[in-house]
Structure of Simple sugar transport system permease protein:
Amino acid sequence: MTKSKNKTPNAFSKISKWASDFIKMDKTRSAGRKIASSLWALFFGMLLAYIYIAISKGVGKSIFVNPFAIFKAIGQSFNSLNQETILKYFLVFGFSAIACALSFKAGLFNIGIPGQMMVTGIVSFSIFIKFRYNNEAPIPVHVLLISLIFSIAVAFIVGLISGTLKAYLNVHEVISTIMLNWIIVGFATLLFKQTSAPVIWNGLSPEQIKYYFADNLDGVVPGFVTISKSARQGFVIAGIIGLFVLAFSIAFVFNYTSLGYKIRMQGISKSNGKYIGVNDKRITMFVLATSAAIAGLAGFYYYVAVSTPVFSEISQPLTLGFEAIAISLLALNSPIGSLFSSLFYTAIYTSNSNLQLDPLYFEPYDIQVITSIILYMAATSIMFVNFQPINYFKRKSKLWSDKRYFANKELEKLKRKKINLITKYKNKVHHLQINANAKNYEKSIQKLKHLQELFAKKLNKVNLSITKAKLKSEQANKLFELEFQLHIAKKNKNQEEITKIKNDIKNHHLFTKKILNKEITTDFIDEEIKEKITLNKEENSQKVQIKLLRKELASLTDKHLSFAMNYKNTDDETIEYFEKINQEKNRINTQLNLLGVATKFNNKQQRKAAIKNNSFEFKKIYQHIILERTEMKKYAKGGQK
């Protein structure tokens, strides 16, 4: 008999599938459910964040934090003085989240958003320094447009490199994008440091080098170039329009074009995509390159299109870029949803200073923890896809107001109890059968007799309870019919009919009480009681025989396998030995099954199937009750039956 299979690979595959579905979140749910799940994730995230603050401030400093004061502080970040900052981060988070969502839809994890955003800083500020721009005059709009176009193009190439590595060399996109992040950081530190500037920028004078670069900073000197207010406003307006157009365009592509269908199929399953004719290499390269280009656009609004253009803190990948992952997951990878999740995160991100003022006085680390909690819950919003508390309590209220529910619930529990009782009895009988031998035969017979008597007694008791529960269910059904008739009579304002039905209901209650108090008998005999059971009289018990057969199987397998592995054998002789091994396995496995080696497992599977069928049967009954209660309520309001 073969050993039980290792369950670890199966468990790992389930976890892997769940994680894959979590990242892709393709069109398996309605838009309404996706929105609801995101809102629930935000609610629980904010609730947990407030619990943390209440404990942190209440226990540590004996301060009560008013939750409405927190919302007020966040709302104050949307004042006119903070308008430019709000728009900046909304555009940055919006473009980067859409870039992330695009790759996730194709089943690709673009972790290179930070580096791809930094590409814009490298390209744009290289152009500004190359053409010797300074803060004496604003940078011309056409130069800004050129830097934007070149930045997007270079970011596209960076994404294309990662896509090519994935498509043709099977290098995982997470590895390649992380490596590219640090390569970009390396380029940035090489280009924008005062120590390396004389070599890289050999056309600059020492004064210009000091003007553009400073050793005490990672990157360029803040404010060495300026952008006119009108140019900034123009880019912001164009960015907002472009962001909305991009979001709706990508949503349209995903839902209504063959390209979008191919991308989604690629995300769901690579093999399925191939079957429908998807060129997975081309799609992979296109998606990662396009995602990088959009991330480059986000970088432009972070580094360049601001009141003080600056490219600093370049010794590591831009940490802000990683926020795009959580923002995208909060929107369940919906391009349009990313607009709302970006706005929400912008509100939190830009309210840091307000939260540190009177009356809250939050510490910077408190704000980091709060943000992390909210983002963590937001990233797990998929867990709330089936979370419908209002619908749950509405359904439960309809069931709790109906006596049929309680009658059927009792019947369901009793049937489950019967299933468990039968399984327990079968396992005990199997234990006696497998251990019985010539020596303990008489004792085993006595145990079996006692077990059968006890089982028959318990089973009869359960059967009587089931019969009584069925009567309750039947009477509850009749009561509902009377209640429905009463609703009709009340709707028609027929007083005579109302009085008659009320009397019928009263009589029904008395009759139900009478028949339930009456002694109930049942002539039903279960198959388990009728079944004739025999015990082993041989010297060796079935348990011992099973052990001997397994040893025999192992011995025969080793014997024939050693012959089969002899290098002097011909191919036909090797095949013959393996056929002998197979024949012996079949013979011994047949004997093992006759001895009951799989009986306990079969009993367990039968119990599972019976409980599942029982649960499914009553689930349909409960759904029918809810439907009838809903129809009755509609009729009472003026509907038609």
The chain has three domains: 1-77+351-387, 88-335, 396-539+598-636.
